[in-house]
Amino acid sequence: MMRITERGVFSSLIFLFACVILFRTLDLRTDVALVPKMVGIILLAFAGVQVLMDLFPAVRKRLTFLNRNSGGSIGGEGVVQEQDEAGDTPFARYRFFGWVAAFIALIYFTSMIWATIISLFVYLKWLNKETWLMSALYSLGMALFIYFVFVVGFKLHFLL
Amino acid sequence: MGFLSQLGAVLQWDLMLIMVGAVMFGLVVGVLPGLGGTIAMVLLIPLTFGMSPEASIVLLLAAYGASNFGGSITSILINTPGDAVNAATTFDGYPLAKQGKAGMAITAAMVCSALGGLVGLVALDLMIPVARKLILAFSYPDFFMLAVFGLTIIAAVTRGNTFRGLISALFGVLLAFVGTDPIIGGERFTFGTEYLWDGIDLVAVIIGLFAIGEAYTLSRQHQSIASEFKVESGISWEGVTAVGKNYWLFLRSCFIGIWVGMIPGVGGVVASFMAYGTAVQMSKTPEKFGKGAIEGVIAVESANDAKEGGNLLPTLAFGIPGNSAMAVLIGGLMMHGLSPGPEMLTKNIDTTEFLIAAAIVGKFVAMALGLLFGTRLIFLTKIRGSLMAPGIIAFGLVAAYGAGGKIGDVIVAAAFGLISVFMQKYGYSRIALIIALVLGGLLEASYHQSMTAFGVSGFFTRPIALVLLSITVLSLAWPLIRRKKTGTSS
After folding, report:
1. Which residue among A5, B368, B382, B439 has the highest number of C-beta atoms inside a 10 angstrom radius?
2. Does A129 touch chain B (CB under 8 A)?
3. Distance from C-alpha of B71 to C-alpha of B68, rounded to nearest angstrom
4. Which residues of B touch A18 (CB under 8 A)?
């Protein structure tokens, strides 16, 4: 029985990325394509298995050794943890990254300074439900800081 | 000790001014829960645009070093570690604070951090001549095997899902191939966009994976972590003498930190917990631990800062970042035309010595400022994560945009921010991705150079390559051996 989940979609995208890279190697000279092809094939195989495990719970049950976490209650930075935090809903995620996308669009169409003022104000006032005063002071303060440090200080005039 | 010759260069008034500012910033970031040294460096990257490489090194390393100090203050006073590496400090630091000995615990933590950092960095300085001799003996097949080793060690040390750790690393390697190929210099995997000709920008990826990814986590924290607290003085001679009385514990913890720090991917959390565990095991009064034993604070803080010397060795000598903070440092150095790897121990040896000197001075400045102002910064824990998030995003995007003025870098940072959220959620390793992105180029270039100069036999006949190959195979087989051993013993 197939089950489409966000986890499955994410692993499918990695699989798709490997497919695209491998497809693009067909246009390249053999020696130029050699190493990417080798790495791409391994990623394709690994990501393929991961996609199957994510989409088909029965496969996941059969391949338990691949889902096993290596022991130890502590870990280093390599630690990979599956988070299940409160408030981390798909809506919250897409709303947040939708806001980041709008921020980037504003940088492109206006400037970094204006984009900072507008985006931060919108985020604080409407997404974070802060007071008008806090939203205005925070966004203006941040924009002024960026202006004085980067434009005046470091002469990065393209931020204007 | 080569770094001594660079102390004069560090102790210039302009660099010291930058250092004091960076240390204060590092302390603030360290105090803020959820933020650590990596974020401190990411947020400071845009400030290095107009600076000399030396000033940038001072800025980044001073802030990184000071963040550990800030994190230990919150661990002791309010039982909340600023970063994961400070978690073990809470075990005995907080009980000490409850007994009215916060000043002693904070002083011991600060002194151990500064002296631990000094021991770690001096050890690094002493290891450099050995590493230089080794690196000069390296040829193309050895570099190839080194890159393979760097990638597999991440999978081997990843405590979590190794399979997804490997997928993350392979994904990172493929991303490193985007841009121009090393053979004919033609475009590859650029999908017709001029922007990708230079490859995927490392700094933008780091900003996305660490700053934007963490900002998303913070955006969901609508409550401050601290309520009411009493600020106590941070200076106590009792703390200083406690370190002197436990000098053997201090040194042992430092060496644990240095050793663990040298292994890429393991990080400070393991170093601090391992030092704490060893301190408990070797103590004559293990029952005191967890109830307010100053030895617990000394062990953790010494290991925590000593590990930085260990971290810097693979980063500077081989270009293999030991952790995410070192990946940021590599990005920062590359922005200023310095490429970590063999050149840092040969052509740029003065810069390396300067870097060590700056890190050592930074530790002592952080100790002084931490003792003077550290406890006063505790009010910052009242700031909600949801309020910090937009500021971090804005600063992260300025960092990505300001580096080259390319909107593509901003898009890459945001895209990797989103990828970071899913990677964390579904158990993929961000550090494996970033290390692979750094090593991918070396892997491919050294493969082609080896094949041209030596042929396939080069990988199996050169002693260094063979040793590295053996360690690689061993590190991959180690989890299986360990499992078998555990199974047999149980």
Report:
1. B439
2. no
3. 5
4. 174
